[in-house]
Amino acid sequence: xxxxxxxxxxxxxxxxxxxxxxxxxxxxxxxxxxxxxxxxxxxxxxxxxxxxxxxxxxxxxxxxxxxxxxxxxxxxxxxxxxxxxxxxxxxxxxxxxxxxxxxxxxxxxxxxxxxxxxxxxxxxxxxxxxxxxxxxxxxxxxxxxxxxxxxxxxxxxxxxxxxxxxxxxxxxxxxxxxxxxxxxxxxxxxxxxxxxxxxxxxxxxxxxxxxxxxxxxxxxxxxxxxxxxxxxxxxxxxxxxxxxxxxxxxxxxxxxxxxxxxxxxxxxxxxxxxxxxxxxxxxxxxxxxxxxxxxxxxxxxxxxxxxx
Length: 308
What we know:
The chain crosses the membrane at residues 6-23, 102-121, 248-268, 280-300. The protein has 308 residues and is mainly alpha-helical. It has helices at residues 2-23, 33-71, 78-99, 103-148, 153-163, 168-180, 185-195, 199-214, 218-242, 244-267, 269-272, 274-277, 280-303.
């Protein structure tokens, strides 16, 4: 019912805007043909501007989503990932409608379904980045050793791509393929920096690019960078290990009240419906519960987040 009212209101607003643009000024009720044409031109210009903005937003969103999928190493196109989001959204809405039969909870279930692919994408990106950062120091030591024996940087990247495990080996293979396709080595490394959002990798690639511009002993430079990256990764892993229990506690404490509420609702519907039939007090209690859970989760997460 509320959805129908909202849709009707939007249609009335759109109709009023069109009538206003068509009629022009209120003082001239009987406008002549030239004024009507000018109103049509204003309407056409307004629609063309919004269409251009929508196309620009679409291009930016598609580029950003394609970059995220590449960072997660998922062989999907943006339209396929959006189709997955629509499917999980429809599944979540159907589950909410079948179990809870309340518009607000149906929307909440649909939002949870839409968030699942996004959370999966974020998890894949973070996991791949952590694995790559753990392999980066060994890769730089390997490249520096090949450079000390007189090999070129391209040859060192070939050896690293053949001896290292994924995902870093896959990124080096992409760099080699781009060089074979006609890109310079600096351009291929810059593309690698764009695909992998890692500070450690950006530091290593910046060191290589600076050395190519100013010259010097690249092997020694890479060994120093590798030692610094090794120390940073070690400290990050130590911090992650020491704070793992607190981060897990924050996630459990944040999810437990919501999960229990969603489980108890279909089991004792009459009791849980008091939140919605008690007027302002019930909604205020629900809002306070969500606020306190969110506040506690953010406080614990902030306490366990340390930068190296």
